[in-house]
Amino acid sequence: MTLRRTLARLGVIAVAGLVSAGLVAVPAQASTSPAGERSLAALLTSDGNTFDHNWYDYDIVTEAVLAVLAAKPSSPVGVLADGSVPLTAFIPNDRAFQVLVRDLTGRWPSTEKKTFEALVGAVGVDAVEAVLLYHVVPGATIRSKDALKADGAKLATALPGAAITVDVKSKWLRLIELKDLDRNDANPWINPRAFDLNKGNKQIAHGITLVLRPLNL
Length: 217
Prior knowledge:
The structure is a single chain. By secondary structure, this protein is α+β, with helices and mostly antiparallel strands. The protein has helices spanning 3-20, 40-44, 59-71, 94-105, 112-134, 144-147; strands spanning 87-92, 136-138, 154-156, 163-170, 175-179, 203-208. The protein has one domain (3-208): FAS1 domain, CATH 2.30.180.10. The chain has 6 helices and 6 strands. A hairpin with a 4-residue loop joins strand 4 (163-170) and strand 5. The longest helix is centred in the middle third of the chain and has 23 residues, at 112-134. The protein is globular and about 40 Å long. Residues 80-171 form the FAS1 domain. Keywords: Signal.
């Protein structure tokens, strides 16, 4: 069975869990009717799903999703594989995870693979799952034009009880800060050059500069 088909089957299980848990909610000023149904999992694995030397793409978050689903096949993270379900994900680049590992362990891993291994080793799969869910807003396709109108909005995430706050610093410069639950660390910004990844589909993503952190990380 191919990786994509495996992810799609896992996604069906996870979507049912999200609906039954009441996690699918539509924030204000969000579009929910784009035509395409390519999933974010398909987007993230389209480059061959390998670590590389580019710290500003999304290999580590891809491997994190796969690691969680391998350990916990019914994880809600699997919703990323069902392109029929609208959602918005804020995805940290590989450098963001390197910064997180430095904060957690005091070490700078020299490669993406070592960064990923250090992350899982430091916090475990359950915490990685929680972090991933904290980056997903289920039930709505929030495009860049929606986000730039959402100053002050609190977005409910797929991590139960955890929200992130949108702080639009400049509509003209397309600068948006995302405020997480951890007040002791710097907040991520949406990369103005990484808006609307997977544009035209129900599942959309925006690249961010740091990892969003729930209180217990």
